[in-house]
Amino acid sequence: MTKTQITPTxxxxxxxxxxxxxxxxxxxxxxxxxxxxxxxxxxxxxFQAGQxxxxxxxxxxxxxxxxxxxxxxxxxxEDGRRQMVGLLLPSDFVGRPGRETAAYxxxxxxxxxxxxxxxKPFEDVMATTPHVGQRLLEMTxxxxxxxxxxxxxxxxxxxxxxxxxxxxxIARRDASLRHEKSEGRVIVDLPLTREAMSEYLGLxxxxxxxxxxxxxxxxxxxxxxxxxxxxxxxxxxxxxAGDDSDGGFLV
Length: 251
Hints:
By secondary structure, the protein is an alpha+beta fold.
């Protein structure tokens, strides 16, 4: 695959207090003086769907939080095969302080907006602002837990459970960003194409389409247009996913 130079667009500056991911992002624990330090080093970038944010192995001189949209983390094997290994949803953190290069290809699945920090100034802020380091540790541990749960999903769940799980994960995150509870009737825009879902879940496109149709036929979900999903009863979707009411996996 040929690498192309991406020139993302910088966006209008947004005050941290008005940020839609403020309560979940790496700055969630920051006091006003700590936010002032981050304000001095942040800038916004946008990427169109399909654009590469960074290639695996390339030097990454920034870290960032996803403000809106979704990106994928993909790894390419020596024989050229590619595997999607993760999703970056709003409030997720991209990049690692202290690491010079990117571990994965990061590609915008939908139009993507990121709040970026130059890496060296961000590392300096971490050293003097405990709340940033503490929150980043929390997010890293949450990411580890999610990775372990996803290993179970890919290895043990049925195709129907995988589809239901992915819809539930996205619905929970969307509700959290809107300060709402994921219960009862839930409405969410599914930001992934069925092709992307099949790649991420290790299923064929035909299987994804068939299982989505089955969930709709059984009244678990309703679909308006291509990606507008209505979940009449979120608890019923959770049961179909094999999860408990807190989002953990049933044993």
